[in-house]
């Protein structure tokens, strides 16, 4: 069958070279465009300053605004949540991370970890108490799994909850916890005599504290904390009743990792667009550097990996919406997309030359943020081993 004449084809769109917009519904585009406008108005004008200062001022106001957009617990149903599709949630993550990884992390931890844990494993009373206010951004949540000495091996966690009469008494430490210092509620995973259990912990509980972690060179516009629990007494109904064991926290992590598959492509897109604009205007040797073959080769390779990554994210989103997305497939997406996003940022930096390290451009900020995204919610090595086990049937974790 012969190809149609070029005059009948849509024009080539440098911002969408594969025509991926054709895969989206009108509602998908509306969600994407709404989040993009919010990020352009509320985050982009100030993010370089926030990053340089190493803080995220007005985080509670930002959370309420994100709640009004329906972006918190976006793909959950009921309890004030938007009930959006997985693809729509992914598009929102992409647009938020195109502004900054710290903003996407705020939303991911709130919705895909803290809220999802309560929504999926909590009692009806826990859902009614916490989820509506969290969906509105009135209460910020955090998720305590990683410990100072146990990251990739959560089964070895030392945080422990023991029964004392009708109560639970919780002791331990959690590390690298997004939103911790501003959270009103923490979902904390702990060893018990019955196995690993999740606890819904009001952060005002006596014995609970969340000192903020400073001196970071990545995710600087994000609140990162340690959680400290010294004899925190909780009522019997603080435990998440519907899960025991690691499948609880790992199920939450799969939900959050899916958002990273999309979000990392937002950081990559912002860096690619900065490099493309720069290449078309920066002149050397009498013409724009975008007119040189080596620069065009870099731009072409970046565009290929960027839009392949978005296509992969969309495919995984469709599988999630169909109830067919496996954890190994999420590992496939996170492993590929974060790695490629970092490489896109590094290549964009070379196109910008010395300007690439300036906060007047987003490239170095995205590159350093992605170094954290590469590690959290599963390191490269962990996702390689997940895929390796799936491919061979042999467990190489131990």
From TrEMBL:
<keyword id="KW-0809">Transit peptide</keyword>
<dbReference type="GO" id="GO:0000062">
    <property type="term" value="F:fatty-acyl-CoA binding"/>
</dbReference>
<dbReference type="GO" id="GO:0033539">
    <property type="term" value="P:fatty acid beta-oxidation using acyl-CoA dehydrogenase"/>
</dbReference>
<protein>
    <submittedName>
        <fullName>Acyl-CoA dehydrogenase</fullName>
        <ecNumber>1.3.99.-</ecNumber>
    </submittedName>
</protein>
<dbReference type="Pfam" id="PF02770">
    <property type="entry name" value="Acyl-CoA_dh_M"/>
</dbReference>
<dbReference type="InterPro" id="IPR013786">
    <property type="entry name" value="AcylCoA_DH/ox_N"/>
</dbReference>
<dbReference type="InterPro" id="IPR036250">
    <property type="entry name" value="AcylCo_DH-like_C"/>
</dbReference>
<feature type="domain" description="Acyl-CoA dehydrogenase/oxidase N-terminal">
    <location>
        <begin position="25"/>
        <end position="138"/>
    </location>
</feature>
<dbReference type="GO" id="GO:0046949">
    <property type="term" value="P:fatty-acyl-CoA biosynthetic process"/>
</dbReference>
<dbReference type="GO" id="GO:0050660">
    <property type="term" value="F:flavin adenine dinucleotide binding"/>
</dbReference>
<dbReference type="InterPro" id="IPR009075">
    <property type="entry name" value="AcylCo_DH/oxidase_C"/>
</dbReference>
<dbReference type="InterPro" id="IPR046373">
    <property type="entry name" value="Acyl-CoA_Oxase/DH_mid-dom_sf"/>
</dbReference>
<feature type="domain" description="Acyl-CoA dehydrogenase/oxidase C-terminal">
    <location>
        <begin position="245"/>
        <end position="391"/>
    </location>
</feature>
<dbReference type="InterPro" id="IPR009100">
    <property type="entry name" value="AcylCoA_DH/oxidase_NM_dom_sf"/>
</dbReference>
<dbReference type="InterPro" id="IPR037069">
    <property type="entry name" value="AcylCoA_DH/ox_N_sf"/>
</dbReference>
<keyword id="KW-0285">Flavoprotein</keyword>
<keyword id="KW-0274">FAD</keyword>
<dbReference type="Pfam" id="PF02771">
    <property type="entry name" value="Acyl-CoA_dh_N"/>
</dbReference>
<feature type="domain" description="Acyl-CoA oxidase/dehydrogenase middle">
    <location>
        <begin position="142"/>
        <end position="232"/>
    </location>
</feature>
<comment type="similarity">
    <text>Belongs to the acyl-CoA dehydrogenase family.</text>
</comment>
<dbReference type="Pfam" id="PF00441">
    <property type="entry name" value="Acyl-CoA_dh_1"/>
</dbReference>
<dbReference type="InterPro" id="IPR052033">
    <property type="entry name" value="Glutaryl-CoA_DH_mitochondrial"/>
</dbReference>
<dbReference type="InterPro" id="IPR006091">
    <property type="entry name" value="Acyl-CoA_Oxase/DH_mid-dom"/>
</dbReference>
<keyword id="KW-0560">Oxidoreductase</keyword>
<dbReference type="GO" id="GO:0004361">
    <property type="term" value="F:glutaryl-CoA dehydrogenase activity"/>
</dbReference>
């Amino acid at each position: 069958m012969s190809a149609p004449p070029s005059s009948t084809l849509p024009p080539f769109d440098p911002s969408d070279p594969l025509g991926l917009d054709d895969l989206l519904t009108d509602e998908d585009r509306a969600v994407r465009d709404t989040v993009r406008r919010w990020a352009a108005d509320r985050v982009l004008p100030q993010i370089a300053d926030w990053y340089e200062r190493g803080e995220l001022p007005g985080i509670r106001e930002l959370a309420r605004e994100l709640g009004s957009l329906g972006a918190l617990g976006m793909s959950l149903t009921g309890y004030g949540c938007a009930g959006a599709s997985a693809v729509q949630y992914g598009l929102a993550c992409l647009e938020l991370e195109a502004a900054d990884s710290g903003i996407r992390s705020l939303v991911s931890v709130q919705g895909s970890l803290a809220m999802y844990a309560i929504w999926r494993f909590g009692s009806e009373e826990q859902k009614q108490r916490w989820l509506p206010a969290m969906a509105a951004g009135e209460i910020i949540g955090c998720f305590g799994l990683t410990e100072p000495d146990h990251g990739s091996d959560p089964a070895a966690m030392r945080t422990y909850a023991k029964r004392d009469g009708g109560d639970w008494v919780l002791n331990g430490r959690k590390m690298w916890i997004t939103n911790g210092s501003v959270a009103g509620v923490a979902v904390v995973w702990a060893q018990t005599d019955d196995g690993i259990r999740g606890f819904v912990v009001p952060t005002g509980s006596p014995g609970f504290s969340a000192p903020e972690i400073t001196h970071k060179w990545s995710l600087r516009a994000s609140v990162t904390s340690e959680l400290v629990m010294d004899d925190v007494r909780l009522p019997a109904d603080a435990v998440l009743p519907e899960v025991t064991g690691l499948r609880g926290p790992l199920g939450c992590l799969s939900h959050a990792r899916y958002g990273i598959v999309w979000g990392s492509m937002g950081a990559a897109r912002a860096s690619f667009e900065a490099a493309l604009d720069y290449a078309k205007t920066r002149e050397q040797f009498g013409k724009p550097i975008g007119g040189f073959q080596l620069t065009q080769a870099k731009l072409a390779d970046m565009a290929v990996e960027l839009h392949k990554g978005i296509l992969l994210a969309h495919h995984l989103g469709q599988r999630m919406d169909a109830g067919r997305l496996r954890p190994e497939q999420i590992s496939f997406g996170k492993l590929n997309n974060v790695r490629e996003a970092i490489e896109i940022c590094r290549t964009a930096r070379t196109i910008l030359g010395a300007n690439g390290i300036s906060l007047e451009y987003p490239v170095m900020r995205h590159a350093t943020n992605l170094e954290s995204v590469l590690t959290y919610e599963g390191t490269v090595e962990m996702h390689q081993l997940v895929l390796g086990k799936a491919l061979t049937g042999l467990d190489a974790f131990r």
